[in-house]
Amino acid sequence: MDVLFYLFSAILIGCAAAVVCVRNTLYSVLFLIMAFFNAGALFLLMGAEFIALILVIVYVGAIAVLFLFAVMMLNASQTQNQELVRYHLGSIVAACVFAGELIAVALQWKQGARTVDRTSFPMPKYLSNTEALGELLYTHYFYVFQISGLILLVAMIGVIVLTLSTQNQRLLPKQNLKNQLNRTKKDTLVLKHVEFRQGLKQGNP
Q1: b/e for 10-21, b at 16 or more Cβ within 10 A?
Q2: Is residue 118 part of a domain?
Q3: What is the 3-state secondary structure of 161-195?
Q4: Distance between CA 9 and CA 39 in Å, rounded?
Q5: How many helices (H) does the chain have, and how many strands (E)?
Q6: Is residue 133 part of a domain?
Q7: Geometric angle at alpha carbon 161, from 158 and 163, rounded to 5°
Q8: How many domains does the chain divide into?
Q9: Same domain, yes or no: 132 and 63
Q10: Which UniProt keywords apply (predicted)?
Q11: Residue pair 53/37 in contact by the 8 Å Cβ criterion
């Protein structure tokens, strides 16, 4: 188990580094998918099979594939260096903040400053990991779970409002629902009599 843990961890760290170091965006997304698979394998080794499956199904099956399709459709596999210059400062600041958080967590874990009390919410032994997770989410963390759903709902409504803003209304095609619902077969369907091997001629009844 220890050998597999270090193996998957090394591959995960290498893939994560390749995501931000590779210049080709398509390869970066592929390394991201591989990193998700290795993270799921680590969760399996820790006995959290539900989180591992969710990680693979949601992140690999939906989000990473969406990134891959977006990169391929937009032909963004090669990015010009001039376009990345303006993002250097923000990227460096974000990297420093993230590195500081990782160092703080590592120091606390090494010094044993904080330990997790696993008996805060004891679960019966006959419950599986999936059932225990559902028990925690819908009992002890029910309100937090609902608040997170409301936050996602607000984000979705915000995206819809921004998409249907006044400035974008000019770019969207106009539709008249009344005319569409009241149209008949004569308005939309035309029957033509076509002779064998003659093709359709203009004005042919």
Answers
A1: ebbeebbebbee
A2: no
A3: HHHCCHHHHCCCCCCCHHHHHHCCHHHHCCCCCCC
A4: 8
A5: 11, 0
A6: yes
A7: 110
A8: 2
A9: no
A10: Cell membrane, Membrane, NAD, Oxidoreductase, Quinone, Transmembrane, Transmembrane helix
A11: no
**Packing angle of the helix pair 25-45, 2-21 (nearest 10 deg):** 160
Is pTM, for the whole model, over 0.70? no
Question: Which tens digit of pLDDT belongs to each residue from 123-138?
Answer: 667 777 778 788 888 8
* Together in a domain, 6 and 68: yes
| Structural domain boundaries enclosing 147 | 128-165
Task: Confirm if 25 and 73 have CB atoms less than 8 A apart.
Answer: no
Tokens representing 166 are: 């006044």
- Looking at the domain assignment, is residue 148 inside a domain? yes
> Residue 40 is part of a domain; what is its CATH number?
1.20.120.1200
| Burial of 196: CB neighbours in 10 Å, binned 0-12, 13-18, 19+ | exposed
Confidence of residue 86 (pLDDT cuts 50, 70, 90): low
Specify if 14 maps to a domain: yes
CB 11 within 8 A of CB 34: yes
Least-confidence region, from 31-35, 110-114, 195-199: 110-114
Token readout for 33 is 């998918």
Instruction: Write out the two tokens for 24.
Output: 């080709």
Q: Is residue 204 very low, low, confident or very high in pLDDT (cuts 50, 70, 90)?
A: very low
